[in-house]
Specification:
432 residues; alpha/beta; Urease, subunit C, domain 1; TIM Barrel; 2 domains; 8-stranded mixed sheet; 6-stranded parallel sheet; 34% helix
């Protein structure tokens, strides 16, 4: 197995401690050794890369990925794309995610019943090494109720979007089993509505307790992950009751529900997916969504609730992960790293806290030895021009990603001339 030694780097290892100057040795697809200081690790034939004081950090992990979304304006557009075109687009989206520093993606839903296997095929194509992309845990479509989020049908015509419609416990159970049969890693159910849906709203339940229980039962029996769309307070409680391990949004969780989340904080993850709400509220006028329209959709009040909830989530030490719902025209695939900045600016996280959430906690969600630069962990690593522990926004510029390593192999190798130029002007790596 080949070895690569990074020297003269500032290491953010993802474990919550401060960055430090050091060296990292990779062997094959694993982190072999990590050391503080310079000339601490013997090269012994390794390829040596002088990082010129750049930051070495774990690859980013997207906890609410929609790798197969098409950067459209409305969910209905997703269903209208032919499956052949959609597969090609999905392959390109996966490459873009890796180009953007995301070495892992926990999918939050595929793209509808008729195209259920697209995301599964995408995962398998990436794993085969034939196409570039992040580690991907593939998901079911949005398992949802009639008139729920993801149901774009009309009485006189069938129109698919991202949903797999299932009503009643038996239908939900069958839908979940079918998805497991086809090879998903994650089940996704929509327990509450959303202002993005034609019917229902964020504080309206769209599934009953028995329907949620049926989905959770299948997940437990088959060993797959289960995630849920749950904006309403009661939807969050229902998810907790049935052991759903990642809850998306939770915008309207009240203090009692936050107490319940805190009591189970070692077993549950949250992901607000604030980026899409923020862009719809303030940055979507080019797509016909003015501030007035956004206000009529309750986007501004939803944001206020999200700020309240996740500032409290941070204080309570509940694991909340940045990212989610990227794949629309106003927040396209590949801009996912912006959510780290939202965590800092909107929720009060420090840059280091946001980075831990996007790396270490993301690895814990994935259920793999990911998200840390640590001996025995998988070598999914970024070499970054600058210090993201001081300014997470630098991760939004792909030019700042000097190197991208996934599974021990370079997706983007460092440019020797660029590193040489950096050595002329940058001080050696130093511990903070």
């Amino acid at each position: 197995m080949g070895q690569t030694l990074f020297t003269n780097v500032k290491i953010f290892d993802g474990n919550g401690k401060r960055s430090y100057a050091g060296e990292v040795l990779l062997q094959g697809n694993m982190v072999k050794e990590v050391a503080k200081g310079q000339r601490k690790i013997k090269a012994n034939g390794a390829d040596v890369i002088d990082g010129a004081g750049a930051t070495l950090m774990p690859g980013l992990i997207e906890p609410h990925a929609h790798v197969c979304y098409i950067d459209g304006v409305a969910l209905a557009e997703i269903g209208r794309m032919p499956p052949e075109d959609h597969m090609v687009l999905a392959l390109d989206n996966a490459r873009v995610m890796l180009d953007s520093g995301f070495t892992g993606c926990f999918s939050a839903a595929g793209v509808g019943e008729s195209k259920l296997r697209i995301e599964i095929a995408l995962r398998d194509a990436i794993n085969s090494g034939k196409f570039p992309g992040p580690r991907l845990l593939a998901a079911s479509p949005e398992i949802t109720s009639t008139a729920g989020l993801g149901d774009e049908r009309k009485h006189h015509m069938y129109e698919e979007s991202v949903g797999l419609i299932a009503d009643g416990a038996d239908e939900v159970r069958k839908a979940c089993r079918m998805c497991v049969r086809e090879g998903v890693d994650n089940l996704k159910i929509n327990i509450s509505g959303d202002e993005f849906a034609r019917l229902g709203h964020s504080q309206q339940l769209t599934y009953t307790d028995s329907e949620v229980a049926a989905a959770a039962e299948v997940a437990k029996m088959t060993g797959v992950n289960i995630a849920c769309h749950a904006r309403a307070d009661q939807a969050v409680r229902m998810a907790l009751k049935h052991g759903i391990n990642i809850i998306y949004h939770a915008d309207y969780a009240n203090n009692k529900t936050l107490d319940m989340l805190e009591a189970k904080k070692k077993a549950v993850f949250l992901a607000p997916a604030v980026g899409v709400v923020y862009t719809v509220a303030y940055e979507a006028s080019n797509w016909g969504i003015t501030t007035e329209i956004a206000e009529s959709m309750n986007m501004l009040s939803k944001l206020e609730n999200t700020y309240r909830v996740y500032q409290e989530v941070r204080k309570r030490g509940i694991r909340a992960l940045p990212g989610g719902d990227y794949g629309f025209a106003f927040n396209p695939i590949g801009t996912n790293a912006r959510d780290l900045e939202h965590f800092v600016n909107l929720f009060g996280y420090s840059p280091a806290e946001a980075l831990i959430a996007a790396t270490k906690w993301g690895g814990e969600l994935m259920g793999m030895n990911l998200g840390q630069i640590k001996e025995g962990y998988l070598a999914d690593i970024l070499l970054v021009n600058g210090d993201p522990t001081q300014d997470v926004s630098i991760l939004q510029d792909r030019d700042n990603l000097l190197a991208i390593i996934k599974d021990g192999s370079f997706h983007k190798a460092p440019d020797a001339d660029a590193l040489a130029a950096r050595r002329q002007f940058a001080a050696p790596a130093a511990a903070e």
